[in-house]
Design a protein that fits this description.
Layout lengths: L10 H9 L3 E6 L36 H12 L7 E6 L9 H12 L4 E8 L6 H13 L1 E9 L3 H6 L6 H13 L3 E8 L6 H12 L5 E6 L2 E2 L3 H8 L7 H14 L5 E4 L9 E3 L6 H14 L9
Parallel strand pairs: 1-2, 2-3, 3-4, 4-5, 5-6, 6-8
Antiparallel strand pairs: 7-9
The protein binds iron/sulfur cluster.
The site of iron/sulfur cluster has 12 residues, from loops.
């Protein structure tokens, strides 16, 4: 099985098929916070989350959405001279505000030149009835997906990382979003302390049988300035090697249904803050090693679904 030159259904392939051209994501900061940081659910956030939240390359939150889009377009035009865009609200919890505020920001984000879609990263416990209704409306206006950070299906690990919600909350969220035809992308993290390969692959098997449209695999980052860093210094735990990670990702790809879109196979840590695993800084090597391993095994997405 091949999807273009890949042995898995990549987001790039899916978006090119849908829009007939390269589609580029613009990472935006909507100025939101997170209930897991502002005291509503917790004060310190998920154990791996830094002060700046979860966004990697978002623009300055001081700029308007329109200006962030313009600056991201300028920045990315060095790499992609043409294409269309998806506005991606990435940082913190992007449904955590009033419906009026969300409506204003999402509307601004989809009305800019060349923008053909909207992606919203959030928590499953931040999808009230009114927010779901708003998402349903935007789903009719544009190509929308909602990203949920599940990370693991295992309760003990979820407690350790201070995720702040139970698995049934994710299940309810995905059901409500599916009911409204809103596409969902689920995040999983590999390398969480005390999780075995079997635990991680059980999380993959679980999401393979939910109606998630897409998946993002991340490796656990230990970054300075996070509680995870302080924990790691006092209680060092096993960090996945590049070979272990690649083998795990390929095992996971084999377990996914063939129509599930693979949005990400490795993360982008902040170079200045990243303590472990340092090998992730060579993203191209990680991605090409995954392709190589798929080829060597003569395998592809869904072979063991
Ligand atoms: S839900 Fe996201 S933004 Fe909130 S604390 Fe966790 S990682 Fe950080």
């Amino acid at each position: 099985m091949m999807w273009g030159d890949k042995r898995y259904l990549s987001l790039n392939y899916e978006l090119r098929k849908t829009f007939g051209t390269k589609v580029i994501k613009l990472s935006l900061d909507g100025g939101f916070t997170c209930p897991n940081r502002d005291g509503t659910i917790g004060n310190r956030g998920c154990i791996f989350c830094g002060e700046e939240g979860s966004g990697e390359f978002t623009s300055s939150r001081k700029l308007s959405i329109k200006d962030q889009i313009e600056s991201q377009k300028r920045f990315l035009s060095k790499k992609w001279s043409e294409g269309k865009y998806i506005s991606f609200f990435q940082n913190f919890t992007n449904t955590y505000s009033t419906v009026k505020d969300l409506n204003k920001k999402y509307s601004e984000a989809i009305s800019q030149n060349g923008v053909v879609g909207l992606a919203i990263a959030t928590r499953p416990d931040c999808l009230s009835e009114e927010v779901l209704k708003l998402l349903e409306e935007f789903n009719k206006k544009t190509f929308l997906w909602v990203e949920l950070g599940l990370q693991t299906i295992h309760g003990e690990t979820a407690k350790f990382i201070r995720r702040g919600y139970e698995l049934d909350c994710y299940e309810k969220a995905i059901m409500e979003l599916n009911k409204r035809n809103v596409k969902v992308v689920t995040h999983l993290i590999f390398g969480l302390p005390n999780e075995t390969n079997k635990d991680m692959l059980d999380s993959v098997k679980y999401i393979s049988n939910t109606n998630t449209w897409g998946v993002k695999f991340h490796n656990l980052y230990i970054q300075e300035g996070t509680d995870l860093y302080n924990y790691y210094i006092k209680n060092p735990f096993h960090i996945l090697s590049i070979d272990e990670y690649i083998s795990l990702v390929v095992d996971s790809i084999e377990l996914l249904p063939q129509n599930m879109v693979v949005h990400r196979l490795t993360g982008d840590g902040k170079k200045e803050l990243l303590v472990e695993p340092r090998w992730t800084l060579n993203k191209l090597k990680v991605l090409s090693s995954i392709d190589k391993e798929l080829k060597q095994r003569n395998t592809y997405q869904g072979i063991y679904y």
